Request: fold
Amino acid sequence: MFAARKRILVTGGGGFLGSHLSRLLLSQGHEVLCVDNFFTGRRRNIHDLMDHENFEMLRHDVTFPLYVEVDAIYNLACPASPIHYQFDPVQTTKTSVVGAINMLGLAKRLRIPILQSSTSEVYGDPTEHPQTEAYWGNVNPIGNRSCYDEGKRCAETLFFDYHRQHKLSIKVARIFNTYGPAMRPDDGRVVSNFICQALVGQDITVYGQGTQTRSFCYVSDLIDGLVRLMNTPPQITGPINIGNPNEFTIRRLAETIIAMTGSKSRIVEKPLPSDDPRQRQPDITLAKELLGWRPAIELEEGLMHTIAYFDTLLSEEGKSIIPDNA
Ligand code: NAD
Ligand code: UDP
Ligand code: UDP
Reply:
């Protein structure tokens, strides 16, 4: 174990996925340097790691250069929830694009592998279903979601150009909707919104008629996929879809969460945000073949863990942590 110990940089390590990834890497005996500006991350997510002898936290914004010595980089820094990435869209594009340039520059100087957390949003509102990695996407370049979608697309371009031009070892993961403990109660994404609303008896806010679909992956499966991808030989670059192919309508998700929590909440319809993708489902053939990976946790089990997490959070921090959806 000691011989294989690496010092690993996790950008966005204080966020939802980054905190789970940091915890797993530490459990495997690695050292973790967590870099985060805490825009959406929370100290609570990494509270238990602060005293770990192999964990180090650095408050830093990846849009500024970073000079550290590490053996590998997971680049996760970027707000992922639509309400958060649309709050300061210029900063979102900078984080994706300038952040990618800085982390690629760091990887180039050190000659180390770097993994990018890309997204199913690169497929936009897809006209092919399910989405394979060969699909180029259907993305609005000037809409409310474009700062994120186009930022992530440009980051992928940079990763492949650093690979071709500078022979850098890159790994690009296209992550589909992922949920689980450590999401913020005010994250704004659908699973956390519905669970929090159900637990406190608020109306469940379905945007549009709830006929749009998503495919939800539990966090432990996702993190396992990222680590497997990082550990592949250099010729494997991705992009590789990582997500759970089981597809649900948003209305069915609401009904499932109401049933599982025994909530008295009603479902109410709110306006559908612009450019909201109508359907999304990963084709994970490549991940199965190249990573030997497939998700193990299905929706009800994952929701059970996530409901338990929010239930505890609410009892510790009170109902006021949930935004009023009226
Ligand atoms: P999150 O918002 O919980 O975490 C993002 C983290 O990045 C936060 O801790 C935030 O403070 C930090 N951050 C943001 N801007 C930064 C900057 N300029 N410098 C340093 N740190 C910065 O979101 P998440 O769900 O954990 O997502 C992590 C990554 O995975 C993101 O890159 C996201 O695009 C990608 N992703 C997530 C999902 C998902 O469903 N969770 C889906 C697709 C892609
Ligand atoms: N960079 C960094 N840390 C490093 C090396 C580079 O943050 O250890 C940043 C630096 O700001 C630079 C960017 O990465 O602008 C891209 O680096 P690269 O070497 O690719 O380009 P150049 O320095 O030639 O512009
Ligand atoms: N959504 C919803 N109610 C909410 C939050 C989201 O109906 O309170 C819908 C949203 O319109 C989208 C889907 O749920 O169709 C997933 O939204 P999320 O923000 O979680 O992720 P993304 O749209 O980025 O896939």
In short: Residues 83 and 188 are 6 Å apart (CA to CA). Residues 7-176+219-242 form a domain with the Rossmann fold fold (CATH 3.40.50.720). The radius of gyration is 19 Å.
